[in-house]
Amino acid sequence: LAGTGDMERTFIAVKPDGVQRGLCGEIIKRLEQRGFHLVAAKFLQASEDHMKQHYLDLKDMPFYGGLCKYMSSGPVFAMVWEGQNIVKLVRMMLGETNPADSKPGSIRGDLCINIGRNIIHGSDTLENAKKEVGLWFKPEEFVNYTSCFQPYLYE
Q1: Residue 125 DSSP label
Q2: H or E segment at 20?
Q3: Which one of 35, 76, 94, 95 has the minimum C-beta count within 10 Å?
Q4: Relative orientation angle of helices 86-94 and 24-34, to the nearest 10 degrees
Q5: Which residues are catalytic?
Q6: Are 67 and 13 in contact (CB under 8 A)?
């Protein structure tokens, strides 16, 4: 199919606060409506060690320990989504890390208030997306299929 050679994958996780508030469906709905393609998902409670690996780039920040502890405190819904320019577009859909700086219409702008409870994680760069996808998913956990909508999404 023309125009689909530059597909990217990104890692998205609904954090414990988003899971507890019942927002997984709303988040999936928004990503599906945008036209993105779900290729892997799992519902789990990650260990603190796993979260330390995930947030390794933040290890020198004062909030690192608390963030890893919080992220392992309850279930998360981990997903891999695919689409053109998806890393950049999903970051725009999420809004700013601090919900108070997020525009209405973004996920954080519409659904949360506090930076420490900002409901969702999305990879910030293509390089980090590849690392995060590899940390959370094994190759055999992906479902590869062609969406019947693909010709209506991409030229």
Answers
A1: S
A2: helix 16-20
A3: 35
A4: 130
A5: 121
A6: no
Task: Give which of 21, 127, 19, 20 is closest to 79, Cα–Cα.
Answer: 19
Pick one of 3.40.50.300, 3.40.50.11030, 3.30.70.141, 3.20.20.10 as the CATH number of 7-46+75-142: 3.30.70.141
Residue 108 marked in a binding site: yes
Chain-centre distance for alpha carbon 44? 14
Tens-place pLDDT, residues 49-84: 999 999 999 999 999 999 999 999 999 999 999 999
Residue labelled with tokens 């409901």: 119
Both tokens of 82, joined, read: 């695919």
Contact 82, 149 (CB under 8 A): no
91 marked ligand binding residue: yes
In the chain, what are the domain boundaries?
7-46+75-142
Residue with tokens 């954080």: 108
**Structure confidence at residue 2 as a pLDDT band (50, 70, 90):** very low
